[in-house]
């Protein structure tokens, strides 16, 4: 965080023009509740995964209009002195609740609830959505890959296929869902995600022969390294690898061709050469479907790039941030539910709480979205989903990344068996507004 | 740039382990040429647009391993003292050539050529690909939207649907292709992109009535502002808007429903109320196809969000960075072409130059990718595409963003008419390796 600049301009201009209008009318000081939710899941997805919580809390703490930001805003025109002066003093003083990071979510789940004055809360819309929409899209795709891999480790290696900072966040999101490691060094430094990687085809090509390249890599990284064996001829490369490294060879990587067939052939070859401990890692345009198809192949690990960082067909989670309740002129008065009536984009007014309802065996049966936060269904098994993240402007919900990783594992384990189907067409549990399911 | 940290860890671990191996074998010091290119364009695209050049040059200047980076690398294990010490002294001393930012590209176009030692050049792979893959994906989608809009202005407003820093880069890329403005304030501050935006549904909802909200907005922003008219009933909102603002009303925004039908109705209503100068802006899940379909509607401007920042179905440009030539042990000796033979991922060895061949009317007829940089076809009209970006480690190719914007306009104007088809299935000109087309 120390080397991060202010996050305040990672914001749409209309948040500030709305602020100016609301300062003029007085509505700026009304108490307001904003809710972040998804109207629907991406096609063919059974559940979504919340990610971005920790990054949002960091961004919230850095959401200050410093001199550079204020000078730009003053120069860019349209904002009056009252607005600029209000921005100069800005810090969020309200409360935020949210689903725990790594938690599964469903259509209508109130994954973030921001309560404060209208002015202080509306300003957070863009940066909150940017972070959650990106990170949740990645985590939602990554979670399916983890399931498809069935315990085999996956290396996240998509940095090169996405914006250089998205890459860091994508590595973090993938780790939450159970990926073993990432190629991205900044994700290692910033978030403690384990990093991995050994060599590319360029390393073989810059040497006079594949043998010379393997010798160099083994000398530099030891026999336990993973050698890339598909630059020229795979059979010959595997032979050379074992000849040079001996039975201690760590592993080989295959990046092209029919990965299942080649892995089977390479496994036989490695075993035949006495390198039965050598691991086979496959990479090359893998997604959750390709990973699942390789379940019967003798593969010890996967590397996933493009499909991970692009959300495997769903590059944004399509979360929205909507005003659902506000006070009247008396900011201490009751909160009134509000909702627009725009065609095709319905919103449900009123502040809400999320619970997961479980059956006696502990399997999720419904997402409850209720208008009260107290025990919603005496006698039923329900798990409250909102955590207090910010209290009176102070971040209280920060947690180590491993807690999100553990929460994700628990949350997905609790879902019905249909969550494991890669072709499932609809949410694996229904969202109920206002009442628990009869189990 | 001043508030940006080092870019050196926006890198895959394997670049550093390759460095360690190459320092061991001596190959680190061989002269090398890396080339960035796309094997193919995304489905249904007639051309791609290069973007990211300016950001890459910024990242190159910030590519230094500072103490924080070196400490992390030392702690994370696997790298020896020789490698860490080499990294501490790292700065790129080689040369870079690239297609001008905003230029159209085709399969095989050598859009970036990096020449230096193997070690100094291989390290740039990940960050170069991250920047170009993201920015070019956005620009390639944005360019089609600009064409579809046929001169009507487009506001980029997708920040909330992508990573918060991708949002800034996406606004920049969209501006290069002719977008009028962006909602993103940081893109305004950092790159001088004009910013736009007035209000959201929350602004209407926080007031006691739509009328009160409109009054507040007009008081704060003047009659020339754009009022959002679809929170409740569009007809009534338009009536209220003109009643309050008078014929000087700047415009109205419609964000839901059948945009073409509603725009036609609102246009008649505005004209009938005497507000014939009021502009109609439409937003809401627009992409290039929806924009084209609205060509006959009385629309004065578009706002595009999700489709822009997700590359409208192609969120990454799938550019690769490949070693294509290198010296032998004598770094001063000749450069030898190299290429892997992996199944399905062919590379073409050898250093290359890109030219656009034009016919007598100035229309592009072919992309020439040649092994020589001098005039490739005496008597034919050809335009060299590579600019010198970095000379001996010094950035020499930086340019104002408006130059890229102008280059894009010229480059697209030069393409065959088929480039304007939104459903075109293949590159609009062929790529020729080694010989010009006979015109």
TrEMBL record, chains A, B:
Keywords: Glycosyltransferase, Ligase, Phosphoprotein, Pyridine nucleotide biosynthesis, Transferase. Pathway: Cofactor biosynthesis; NAD(+) biosynthesis; nicotinate D-ribonucleotide from nicotinate: step 1/1. Catalyzes the first step in the biosynthesis of NAD from nicotinic acid, the ATP-dependent synthesis of beta-nicotinate D-ribonucleotide from nicotinate and 5-phospho-D-ribose 1-phosphate. Transiently phosphorylated on a His residue during the reaction cycle. Phosphorylation strongly increases the affinity for substrates and increases the rate of nicotinate D-ribonucleotide production. Dephosphorylation regenerates the low-affinity form of the enzyme, leading to product release. It comes from the Bacteria. GO terms for biological process: NAD+ biosynthetic process via the salvage pathway. GO terms for cellular component: cytosol. It catalyses: 5-phospho-alpha-D-ribose 1-diphosphate + nicotinate + ATP + H2O = nicotinate beta-D-ribonucleotide + ADP + phosphate + diphosphate. The keyword tRNA-binding does not apply. Belongs to the NAPRTase family. InterPro entries: Aldolase_TIM, NAPRTase_N, Nic_PRibTrfase-Fam, Nic_PRibTrfase_pncB, Nicotinate_pribotase-like_C. It comes from Streptomonospora nanhaiensis. Residues 9-131 form the Nicotinate phosphoribosyltransferase N-terminal domain. CDD domains: NAPRTase_A. Pfam families: NAPRTase_N (PF17767). GO terms for molecular function: glycosyltransferase activity; nicotinate phosphoribosyltransferase activity. Its EC number is 6.3.4.21. Coiled coil: none annotated. This is Nicotinate phosphoribosyltransferase. Transmembrane segments: none annotated. PANTHER family: NICOTINATE PHOSPHORIBOSYLTRANSFERASE, NICOTINATE PHOSPHORIBOSYLTRANSFERASE PNCB1.
């Amino acid at each position: 965080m120390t080397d991060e600049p202010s996050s305040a301009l990672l914001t749409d201009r209309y948040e500030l023009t709305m602020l100016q209008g609301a300062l003029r009318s007085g509505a700026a000081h009304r108490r307001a509740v904003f809710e972040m939710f998804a109207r629907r899941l991406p096609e063919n997805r059974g559940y979504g995964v919340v990610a971005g919580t920790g990054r949002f809390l960091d961004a919230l703490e850095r959401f200050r209009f410093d001199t550079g930001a204020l000078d730009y805003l003053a120069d860019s025109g349209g904002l009056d002195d009252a607005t600029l002066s209000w921005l100069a003093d800005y810090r969020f003083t309200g409360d935020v609740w949210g689903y725990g990071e790594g938690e599964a979510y469903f259509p209508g789940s109130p994954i973030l609830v921001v309560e404060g004055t209208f002015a202080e809360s509306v300003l957070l819309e863009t940066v909150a959505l940017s972070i959650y929409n990106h990170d949740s899209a990645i985590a939602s795709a990554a979670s399916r890959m983890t399931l498809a891999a069935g315990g085999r480790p996956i290396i996240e290696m998509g940095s090169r296929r996405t914006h250089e900072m998205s890459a860091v966040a994508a590595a973090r999101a993938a780790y939450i869902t159970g990926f073993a490691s990432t190629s991205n060094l900044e994700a290692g430094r910033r978030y403690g995600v384990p990093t991995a990687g050994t060599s590319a085809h360029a390393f073989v090509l810059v040497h006079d022969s594949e043998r010379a390249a393997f010798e160099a890599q083994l000398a530099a990284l030891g026999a336990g390294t993973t050698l890339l064996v598909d630059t020229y001829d795979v059979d010959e490369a595997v032979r050379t690898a074992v000849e040079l490294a001996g039975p201690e060879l760590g592993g080989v990587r295959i990046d092209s061709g029919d990965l299942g067939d080649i892995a089977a052939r390479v496994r036989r070859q490695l075993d035949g050469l006495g390198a039965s401990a050598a691991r086979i890692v496959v990479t090359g345009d893998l997604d959750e479907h390709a990973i699942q198809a390789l379940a019967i192949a003798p593969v010890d690990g996967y590397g996933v790039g493009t499909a991970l960082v692009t959300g495997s067909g769903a590059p944004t989670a399509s979360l929205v941030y909507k005003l659902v309740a506000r006070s009247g002129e008396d900011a201490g008065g009751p909160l009134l539910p509000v909702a627009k009536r725009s065609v095709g984009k319905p919103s449900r007014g009123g502040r809400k709480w999320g619970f997961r309802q479980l059956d006696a065996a502990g399997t999720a049966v419904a997402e409850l979205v209720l208008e009260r936060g107290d025990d919603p269904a005496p006698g039923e098994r329900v798990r409250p989903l909102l955590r207090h993240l910010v209290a009176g402007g102070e971040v209280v919900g920060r947690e180590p990344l491993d807690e999100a990783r553990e929460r994700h594992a628990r949350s997905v384990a609790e879902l019905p068996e249909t969550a494991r189907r890669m072709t499932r067409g609809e949410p694996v549990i229904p969202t109920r507004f206002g009442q628990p399911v009869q189990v």
